[in-house]
Amino acid sequence: MPREEISQGDDTPRIWAADLHISPDGRHLYLSERTSTLSTLRADPESGSLTFVTNQPTVAQPRGFEIDPLGEFLVVAGERSDHLALYRVDAASGELTHASDAPAGNKANWIEIVTLAR
Predict the structure, then answer these.
(1) Which of 7, 34, 52, 97 would you label with 15, given CA atoms 20 to 30 Å apart?
(2) How far is residue 27's CA from residue 25's CA, in Å, rounded to a whole number?
């Protein structure tokens, strides 16, 4: 059933998640939420418990995103956006800082980071 049909007449806030990834060091979990935010949670490596850190406004209706293998950058595509957004990842806090945008066309919804051997 489309989201619009579910929410007609019901004002309850909905979590409309799309993708999630854990940082390469296992300390932070990121989630794309299609109401145009990325959420950051801190992961406790001993217990596995999660603690909310922050929500980051991002591209329209974010779907796919990826963290680079070193955990320094996060790239996100929005299904209702015409560009990708690049964020720097703070290694200690996990917080994201917007670094730049790049054109992506319409309805982009997947990011894949490929590491090439030298």
Answers:
(1) 97
(2) 6
Residues 39-84: tens digit of each pLDDT: 999 999 889 899 999 999 999 999 899 999 999 999 999 989 999 9
* % of the chain exceeding 70 in pLDDT: 90
Rg (CA), the chain: 15
Looking at 26-98, list the stretches that DSSP marks H as alpha helix, in order from N- to C-terminal side: none
Q: If you average pLDDT over every residue of the chain, what do you get? A: 88
| Tokens found for residue 64 | 């796919």
At 1, the pLDDT band (50, 70, 90 cuts) reads very low
Q: What is d(CA 85, CA 89) in angstroms, rounded to the nearest whole number?
A: 13
